[in-house]
Design a protein that fits this description.
The complex is a heterotrimer of chains A (339), B (259) and C (342).
Chain A (H helix, E strand, L loop, with lengths): L11 H4 L19 H20 L5 H22 L4 H38 L7 H16 L2 H13 L7 H26 L3 H9 L4 H40 L2 H11 L2 H31 L10 H5 L8 H7 L1 H9 L3
Helix pairs in contact in A: 3-11, 4-7, 4-9, 4-10, 4-11, 5-7, 6-7, 6-9, 7-9, 8-9, 9-10, 9-11, 10-11
Chain B lengths: L1 E9 L5 E10 L4 E5 L6 H8 L7 E6 L2 E2 L5 H10 E4 L11 H6 L8 H6 L4 H14 L14 H14 L4 E4 L8 H18 L2 E5 L3 H7 L2 E6 L2 E7 L5 H8 L17
Parallel strand pairs in B: 3-8, 3-9, 6-7, 7-8
Antiparallel strand pairs in B: 1-2, 1-4, 4-5, 9-10
Helix pairs in contact in B: 5-6, 6-7
Chain C lengths: L1 H15 L10 H21 L19 H19 L4 H21 L6 H16 L5 H4 L1 H29 L7 H16 L2 H12 L9 H24 L3 H9 L4 H35 L7 H10 L3 H29 L1
The chains are: A mainly alpha (339), B alpha/beta (259), C mainly alpha (342).
């Protein structure tokens, strides 16, 4: 420990008063190159500037934005808080009806997606299906995921089921959402299945059960809570997605939004937005509660990592991996285990 | 010098962490606090730097009266009191050097921290701290790639970078295997002796306490039940503190053989 | 000999230990659930519009409209009976009941039927044929629109992620200055998230108004920005909630300010997740900016709507196929980056 000063690095002592006796044991390492990191940051910067100029943004428009937000915001607030006479009450009812129709569209769409996603999820899971099937299903799913739902709506569903709230547009919207949900749902479900604990699989195979029995008794009990959470999450996403389909003629809140914005009736716009916010937040809350219950069982444990599993199936895959890393519990367990 | 006068700690859930603790810890002392888990060792250590606010009494660190309500005063206090944890508490994704530089936070302007542009003298101090614990060669490695003992030394270097007057260590070796535990304790002892830093260490291994500390404080149920020099902390006395007979788990058996 | 031993074996457990029965759910609660089903039936009966016929393709039999709520009731009661028989807990049974009611209501609201598909198939066929025979030469003529779409997505992603990160830091109780701040920011964020992207687009189009060159991409970028902030702030703040508290405590103990602590102890921990969310949001943006063209925010979506309104399905098909290819490429690119960084 009391090795004499072998090397303290050139110049390290001359600039500043050494606070500690120099008993350095090891040579200071060479600072690794940050070139790649800096180049990466530079590239991001260049791309950003190129994108700003490429998009041809009109920054002058931003100058007037605060003023118009205040102006139109006041108009909207006035619409929301005006005395609800017969006409205004009609606006509120109409908004709620449209929003509920959107919720119904999203529910039916999610059901259609859910119906197909479970078998497809099994076919797209590497540990459940043979390689050729796996490759084909995976490819089909990624193509479905690449197609925005408006394309299903425009190309197939709207001409097939009709336009408008009364004329089958709602069903068309639901079917478009359903088909496009299949891609994401199946992928997330297949990932959940791939993450299944292998022990029960092995033991059920060892006890001579066939593929179906294994799925029923070893896989389903493990993945079902997560699958239900994934479905519910997609339901929330579909409520928002149904709005854009409504603008195209699929009924629901989108159709109403496009009407009131087309007419620039700011008081009605305010009412519609309030209804959207209230209903969406309500549905989100209920759905989050159910997901929590399904995943954590009846007793509501309030462990710190609670929202983890729940809300994070948002994207394709990105959330799952970092989560495992940042999850505090395993690290603490490891530390406690004396690692 | 750290003085506890009638210190009480009551947690928000009503649990009494410390009751009527009166202690005086002199400058440059190496104090080991022993007791069963839940005896209030961690609470005692954490009241010193305000991580656990005490609810009544007076606590002075050096010439400063600790005020747990003032965030700014606490920050100033904490810059002079370093702390070492059982689970090392390193940011495992960043380099060892950056972990050590966290110790310079109190003396670094916020904008420098945000950009990660530390002053040359801060970096120099961080390097010297790493040299002192003997792992300067790992400076640019990710903390995650280090072993447990090395990680704890990085944590010690982080504390040294603060240029502290007091070092608090909460079960610093409980997560380490016996030889490494001895190494880390030797490091702590050497630093305490060379730099004259007051050091308070929580531990549940009796023999470690006996071989490295000047003074032993025994705690039970939030109260100080023994306080004396290390020679007086005999097995009988500690059995009194624990209120059970000593077992093999209370002792780190394997002595460090290397170094 | 054999028979006696079996008999003994059969008799033994009764004498020695009583085998545990699966817990029987409360019959009273089930009765209440059945009452709920009847109540739902009454509601459905009252609100049904006789004109709307809920058709279930049962061998292509058209059911008399008022019968549908009865079918719903029967399904609900059968489900309850099955749950009771299988000794399923009352909460799960309630969940099943709610699921059936919700599906019934949603199905009735959207007028779910698959019966009309055969007769309406003729509407779809010409479009599908056009989509299968895209005008390849058209792809190259809209390259400027593509550039605008990708630029919009890049700008919205980068700015949105930056703002989303700051909001997330204030939204998570782990990193925010106090509980009030985190509650407020969370509430604001859920309002931002509850308005759909097309709602934001319509709002900003109305706020900014037209310019000499049409609407320009500003409204679209702002709409995508709000959309991104909502997603990134929510996901990142949940990641921050789950951060390892150790380094945070260590930073606190060394006298770091809140900002320093968040930068030094929390940011490195959430960075991989944050980058993933950014890439995910970029993918969403490419898709969304195509969809937002419907409300005229510029980019490839506007070009597509123009062709659609002219019934140039071959051109629309060309754009769509290019869109699919671009999204797949972005997907591959972000997978590459993710693997490289994490």
């Amino acid at each position: 420990m009391s090795t004499p000063n072998l090397n303290a690095g050139p110049g390290s002592t001359s600039q500043t008063k050494p606070r500690f006796a120099e008993d350095a044991l090891d040579r200071r390492p060479v600072r690794p190159s940050k070139l790649r990191y800096n180049l990466g940051m530079l590239a991001v910067g260049i791309i950003f500037i190129a994108a700003v100029s490429g998009a041809g943004m009109d920054f002058g428009a931003l100058l007037n934005l605060p003023a118009s937000i205040i102006q139109y915001g006041q108009l909207m607030a006035a619409g929301v808080f005006q005395a609800p006479d017969a006409t205004v009450a009609g606006y509120w009812t109409q908004s709620f009806d449209a929003m509920f129709e959107s919720v119904a569209i999203a529910w039916v769409g999610t059901m259609v997606g859910a119906l197909f996603s479970l078998p497809l999820g099994f076919l797209a899971a590497r540990n459940m299906s043979p390689l050729p099937v796996y490759i084909v299903v995976r490819f089909v799913l990624s193509v479905i995921r690449a197609v925005p739902e408006i394309i299903f709506a425009i190309a197939i569903m709207l001409p097939l089921f009709g336009f408008g709230s009364g004329g089958g547009g709602a069903l068309a919207g639901a079917m478009a959402l359903g088909v496009s949900s299949i891609g994401t749902l199946s992928k997330l479900i297949s990932e959940a299945i791939e993450a299944v604990d292998g022990g029960p699989l092995e033991s059920s195979r060892a006890s001579g059960s066939n593929q179906m029995q294994m799925i029923r008794w070893a896989v389903m009990p493990q993945v079902m809570p997560e699958v239900i959470a994934i479905w519910l999450y997609r339901f929330e996403v579909n409520i928002r997605a149904s709005a854009i389909l409504g603008v195209l003629g699929a009924g629901g809140i989108g159709a109403l939004l496009s009407t009131v914005f087309g007419a620039r009736e700011w008081d009605r716009i305010g009412i519609v937005l309030v209804v959207i916010i209230v209903v969406t937040m309500l549905v989100d809350q209920i759905s989050a509660f159910i997901r929590h219950r399904v995943i954590h069982g009846g007793d509501l444990r309030s462990d710190g990592g609670e929202p983890q599993e729940d809300d994070d199936d948002a994207g394709p895959s990105p959330e799952n991996d970092p989560r495992v890393e940042t999850d505090p519990a395993p690290q603490e367990n490891r530390a406690a285990a004396g690692l | 010098m750290i003085t506890f006068e009638n210190i009480d700690v009551v947690y928000p859930n009503g649990f009494k962490g410390l009751s009527n603790v009166n202690l005086q810890i002199n400058k440059g002392e190496f104090v080991a606090i022993v007791g069963l888990s839940g005896a209030g060792k961690s609470t005692l250590i954490r009241t010193v730097n305000g991580l656990v606010p005490f609810t009544s009494g007076t606590l002075t660190v050096g010439d400063v009266v600790v005020d747990p309500r003032s965030k700014a005063k606490l920050r100033r206090l904490r810059s002079r009191v370093g702390m070492i944890f059982q689970s090392f508490n390193l940011v495992t994704r960043v380099s060892v050097l950056n972990n050590v530089l966290v110790g310079r936070s109190a003396d670094t302007p916020t904008w420098r921290s945000l950009l990660g542009w530390y002053r040359a003298e801060d970096k120099e101090l961080a390097f010297q701290s790493l040299e002192r614990v003997g792992i300067v060669d790992k400076a640019y490695m990710r903390a995650a790639s280090l072993s447990g003992g090395q990680q704890q030394r990085v944590a010690i270097a982080r504390v040294l970078a603060q240029d502290p007057e007091v070092i608090l260590a909460d079960e610093p070796v409980a997560s380490l295997d016996p030889p490494t535990a001895h190494k880390v304790m030797r490091d702590l002892r050497r630093i305490q002796q060379e730099l004259g830093i007051t050091t308070i260490v929580n531990m549940h291994h009796l023999d470690l306490a006996r071989s490295y500390a000047d003074r032993v404080i025994g705690m039970r149920a939030g109260e100080v039940v023994f306080d004396g020099p290390v020679e007086e902390a005999t097995d009988e006395v500690i059995e009194q503190v624990y209120q059970r007979s000593l077992t093999a788990e209370d002792i780190v058996t394997a002595e460090a053989t290397q170094e | 000999m054999v028979t006696t031993s079996t008999a003994e074996r059969r008799a033994a457990p009764q004498a020695a230990t009583v085998r545990p029965e699966p817990p029987r759910p409360s019959g009273l609660v089930y009765l209440g659930l059945a009452g709920l089903a009847v109540l739902a039936f009454i509601v459905f009966w009252v609100i049904q519009e006789s004109g709307d016929v809920l058709l279930i393709p049962l061998g292509f039999v058209t059911l008399w409209a008022p019968l549908n709520p009865v079918i719903g009731l029967v399904v609900m009661l059968v489900a309850l009976a099955v749950c009771f028989k299988a000794r399923i807990g009352t909460m799960a049974a309630f969940g099943a009941l709610a699921f059936i009611m919700m599906s019934y209501w949603a199905g009735a609201t959207v007028g779910f039927t698959l019966l009309e598909i055969p007769e309406r198939w003729s509407n779809v066929e010409p479009r599908l044929m056009a989509f299968l025979d895209p005008n390849w030469s058209y792809i190259w003529t809209v390259r400027d629109q593509w550039l605008i779409t990708i630029s919009m997505a890049v700008v919205a992603t980068l700015v949105g992620c930056a703002i989303g990160l700051v909001l997330a830091m204030y939204a998570s109780p782990v990193s925010s200055p106090n509980k009030g701040t985190s509650q407020t920011i969370k509430a604001v964020n859920s309002v931002i998230r509850s308005i759909p992207d097309v709602g934001w687009a319509l709002l900003f189009v109305a706020f900014i108004g037209g310019t000499a060159h049409g609407l320009g991409p500003m409204a679209g970028i702002l709409a995508l920005l709000m959309f991104n902030i909502g997603i990134v702030a929510k996901l990142t703040s949940e990641t921050i909630d789950a951060v390892n508290p150790g380094p945070v405590e260590a930073a606190d103990a060394s006298g770091a300010t809140l900002t320093q602590r968040n930068r030094l102890a929390i940011l490195p921990q959430v960075l991989p997740g944050f980058v993933s969310y950014g890439l995910y949001v970029f993918e969403l943006n490419i898709r969304a900016s195509a969809a937002l063209g419907i409300v005229g925010v510029g980019g490839i979506g506007s070009a597509m709507m123009l062709q659609l309104n002219r019934f140039q399905f071959e051109n629309v098909a060309a754009i769509l196929i290019a869109l699919i290819v671009v999204v797949l490429l972005v997907d591959m690119f972000s997978m590459y980056i993710r693997r490289k960084l994490l």
